[in-house]
Design a protein that fits this description.
The protein is built from 8 helices and 22 strands. With 494 residues, the chain is of the alpha+beta class. It is globular, with a radius of gyration of 23 Å.
Length: 494
């Protein structure tokens, strides 16, 4: 569970751990991949639009997981930049964390990201010189105040038509800064230099900045539990509740707004993010193979939680029935916050259904209605399918590519391969199908250690990572949730 703290409150050891992790991810080339992911995204798909907040929540979460990986600390969280106390003299700008302002020419000369130690890249991935900062020199001499944050925190709804920089009243738009007191945009402009263009993640303060943005959204969600994400549907493509967001990789938490709405489910904790949510009831036990359990969503935005126990590995089906349009998410094993997968309409009519090979353990289902404004009843059940689980196809390192097909909507294929020596390995797809791939391991399908959309030829996925000995799993799906098609996959060492 990531614990995100005010950057100015970090201990010396916490500062050193964060900086060391950032430098390690940079040395691997992964940090620059994040810069390119942001730089090459479509501006109108991730800014000036409803998806601004969920896209960036997923973006910083992905980096946070990389930092946890290289540090070996699963609780390492990206600190947030508390704007009211984060001016030019704040301790976060000291040489043991971010370093300070640029010199007369804007070049950062202090801290771990100073000239000669840290090189930024342009939108093509080429080296573009040192990190630049110009505190308060670009039209904003001061950062947002607590009073201004409180003002934006009182705004509802989440967003509204025309779903752009002109939306008002709109919590998203006021937080982003196109109307109202200007919170997010002001932070970028105040820092200036490398924080101004779409390559702004070149400056590590970008991620602290967006942690603050995310913290405010998180607190707003707790304050207004009945104010859901908008638009649920009918808005621009890529902005609706269940649309794939532009240029965001898939993974255990998905890549749609609906998949990143719950901070707790993502394992995110802020050190001071009140008000506290209401205590949650204990999950209701479902007996595998028993008749469906009747339930209802009596309040808009309500989420029901169920648990069930699996005694032995095998294929299981979790499904809802009834007149309500349900959405279901599976967590586990033995962790109510570790998301496995989710589904909307795979069952009959508008009911959710998940078919999955599950290992022994306790699992959790969260069920809500597709529309955050709806109420209704449904039934939920879990059954063991009885048939032997499908074996996972094995890829041979440096062997022939394996042909596969995504034959149904929302289908994903899983492959395994064994690494016997510490080295660089490339896992890639080929063919005419637009693939998205995630890499998991070692020796588990749960931890995600890599993801890619278009890193290979054309629309093919390609992941290159240094891997230690062990068994790894590659999961492949179509970029479109309704897409199908054939492809090939192989693993190459070196």
């Amino acid at each position: 569970m990531a614990i995100r703290k005010d950057a100015n409150t970090l201990t010396a050891a916490e500062r050193a751990e964060f900086v060391t992790a950032i430098l390690a991810v940079k040395a691997e080339g992964i940090y620059d991949q994040f810069v390119l992911r942001h730089a090459n995204a479509i501006m109108s798909a991730i800014h000036r639009c409803p998806a601004f907040l969920p896209w960036h929540r997923r973006f910083i979460l992905d980096l946070e997981r990389e930092l946890q990986r290289v540090s070996g600390n699963p609780n390492l969280g990206i600190p947030y930049w508390n704007w009211p106390s984060g001016g030019a003299t704040a301790s976060m700008w000291n040489s043991d964390l971010l370093g300070g302002n640029g010199d007369a020419g804007g070049v950062v000369r202090t801290g771990p990201f100073r000239a000669g130690q840290w090189t930024i890249i342009n939108a093509s991935g080429l080296a573009a010189g040192p990190l630049m900062r110009e505190f308060g020199q670009n039209g904003f001499s001061n950062l947002a105040t607590q009073a201004e944050i409180d003002q934006v925190m009182s705004v509802t709804p989440y967003d509204r038509s025309p779903w752009d920089m002109n939306s008002n009243p709109s919590f998203r738009n006021q937080l982003e800064g196109w109307v109202g007191p200007n919170l997010h945009n002001r932070g970028h402009v105040w820092v200036g230099g490398s924080m101004l263009p779409m390559t702004s993640p070149n400056d590590p303060v970008f991620f602290m900045h967006h942690c603050m943005v995310d913290k405010i959204w998180h607190e707003w969600q707790l304050r207004f539990p009945n104010q859901g994400y908008l638009p649920a549907n009918g808005g621009p493509f890529g902005q609706n509740l269940t649309d794939l967001m532009n240029n965001t990789p898939s993974g255990p938490v998905g890549s749609r707004p609906i998949d990143v709405l719950d901070s707790a489910a993502l394992g995110i904790v802020y050190d001071d993010a009140g008000p506290d949510p209401q205590p949650q009831p204990q999950p209701l036990l479902i007996v595998v193979g028993a008749p469906p359990t009747q339930a209802d969503i009596a309040t808009p935005g309500e989420v029901d939680v169920f648990r069930f126990d699996i005694p032995a590995f095998g294929s299981h089906t979790m499904h809802t029935s009834g007149p309500s349009d349900t959405f279901m998410t599976l967590f586990g094993p033995n962790d109510a916050n570790l998301e496995v997968t989710s589904d909307d309409d795979a069952g009959e009519n508008f009911n959710a259904q998940i078919v999955r090979n599950l290992s022994a353990g306790t699992y959790y289902l969260r069920v809500r209605l597709y529309s955050p404004n709806s109420t209704g009843n449904y039934a939920v059940a879990v059954r063991a399918d009885g048939a032997a689980p499908n074996p996972i196809p094995e890829l041979i390192v440096n062997g022939a590519s394996m042909n596969a097909t995504i034959s149904a909507a929302n289908e994903s294929d899983v492959f395994r391969f064994t690494v016997t020596a510490d080295d660089n390995y490339t896992i890639e797809t080929s063919g005419a199908t637009d693939t998205v791939m995630t890499l998991h391991g070692p020796n588990s399908q749960i931890p995600e250690i890599g993801n890619d959309d278009d890193g290979g030829a054309s629309f093919n996925a390609r992941i290159r990572r240094q891997l230690a000995p062990g068994e790894y799993f590659a999961r492949v799906r179509h970029y479109s949730p309704i897409g199908t098609g054939s492809y090939s996959i192989q693993v190459i060492r070196g």
